[in-house]
């Protein structure tokens, strides 16, 4: 099926943004020049310089992984994918090789746990491109790097899921794993569910985007990676229902102009707050209330709104701190240049075939556009209605 011109253009726009974001990280990572060439900005730059490079790699790979794994691409996109795939493999090899100038210590600080987890998530999303195709010596280095994070005690919030997903990757790969870290994280998250698709991020609820950044996608990924063990299989339908409800609300929060509420921390992750929506689109598990083409249009509006403004990138192509352009005052203490690459997690649907309904169906208005243009639209319903 030939893709309509307008939808071809939309996918090309998404791909252009993703390649623009990922290129400095992957090009330098593949050459072993990431430490040499990556600028590091942030309010606590000197204290966090040892973790920023791992942030950039883990986040970039986790977002680009589904596209790297996709088969059947043709033409220019296939060439771009082949190049990025090779660069990604070389980058993983470089950061885990003790003889490389870009070797990164995965236990250099608590923050390393976050991005080791994102690397594990990337491998789960692209098992062929980022794991099975690697030489055994490189796999051994990766296992050693990820295992070293076990000495890091996660913060008592969404960080429990970071420890859990590393063990879930080991479980999926047939490597000796610590099932208690998985069980503890899932049991604790069940206790933190507050209703209508939302988890509190720890004992107290926070009005931010961490349900999308981390909680829903990570729980689903952990359950998927450990499904063959059957222990948590019964939780999957419940979690999927909760994720679907959360994504209904996330889509409704996108204004007709592609803006979203500017509440909570980590807003400099830009469109990375679409992670949960992109995850359900990628796995073809969107709720029936959200047609794929509607989600595509909603996500596109946010991607353009947050990545299109001037000064989003430096002259050398690196992301700058901000939600909409360069806004360094928006950075929390833990934000550095590497942190900003969470924005790649909006691009998971590029791992869907160009012929799928997500990409091939005609453009349509998303929920807020329908309502604010006077279209009669079904009322929203809470989870228990």
TrEMBL record:
<protein>
    <recommendedName>
        <fullName>DUF2264 domain-containing protein</fullName>
    </recommendedName>
</protein>
<dbReference type="InterPro" id="IPR016624">
    <property type="entry name" value="UCP014753"/>
</dbReference>
<dbReference type="InterPro" id="IPR049349">
    <property type="entry name" value="DUF2264_N"/>
</dbReference>
<feature type="domain" description="DUF2264">
    <location>
        <begin position="10"/>
        <end position="364"/>
    </location>
</feature>
<dbReference type="Pfam" id="PF10022">
    <property type="entry name" value="DUF2264"/>
</dbReference>
């Amino acid at each position: 099926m030939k893709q309509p011109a307008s939808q071809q253009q939309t996918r090309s726009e998404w791909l252009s943004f993703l390649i623009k974001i990922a290129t400095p990280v992957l090009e330098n990572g593949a050459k072993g020049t990431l430490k040499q060439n990556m600028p590091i900005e942030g309010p606590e730059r000197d204290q966090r310089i040892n973790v920023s490079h791992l942030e950039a790699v883990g986040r970039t790979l986790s977002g680009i992984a589904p596209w790297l794994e996709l088969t059947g691409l043709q033409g220019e996109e296939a060439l771009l994918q082949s190049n990025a795939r090779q660069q990604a493999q070389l980058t993983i090899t470089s950061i885990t090789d003790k003889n490389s100038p870009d070797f990164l210590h995965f236990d250099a600080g608590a923050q390393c746990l976050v991005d080791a987890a994102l690397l594990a998530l990337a491998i789960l999303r692209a098992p062929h491109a980022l794991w099975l195709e690697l030489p055994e010596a490189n796999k051994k280095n990766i296992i050693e790097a990820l295992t070293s994070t076990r000495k890091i005690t996660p913060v008592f919030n969404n960080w429990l899921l970071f420890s859990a997903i590393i063990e879930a990757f080991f479980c999926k790969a047939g490597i000796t794993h610590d099932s208690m870290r998985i069980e503890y994280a899932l049991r604790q998250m069940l206790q933190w569910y507050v209703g209508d698709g939302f988890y509190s991020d720890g004992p107290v609820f926070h009005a931010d985007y961490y349900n999308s950044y981390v909680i829903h996608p990570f729980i689903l990924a952990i359950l998927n990676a450990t499904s063959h063990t059957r222990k948590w299989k019964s939780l999957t339908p419940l979690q999927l229902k909760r994720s679907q409800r959360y994504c209904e609300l996330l889509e409704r929060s996108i204004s007709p102009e592609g803006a979203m509420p500017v509440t909570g921390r980590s807003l400099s992750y830009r469109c990375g707050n679409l992670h949960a929506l992109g995850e359900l689109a990628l796995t073809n598990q969107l709720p029936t209330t959200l047609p794929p083409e509607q989600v595509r249009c909603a996500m596109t509006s946010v991607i353009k709104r947050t990545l299109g403004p001037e000064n989003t990138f430096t002259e050398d192509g690196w992301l700058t701190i901000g939600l909409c352009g360069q806004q360094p005052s928006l950075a929390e203490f833990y934000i550095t240049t590497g942190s900003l690459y969470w924005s790649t997690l909006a691009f998971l649907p590029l791992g869907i075939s160009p012929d799928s309904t997500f990409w091939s169906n005609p453009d349509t208005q998303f929920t807020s556009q329908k309502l604010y243009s006077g279209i009669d639209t079904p009322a929203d319903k809470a989870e228990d209605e």
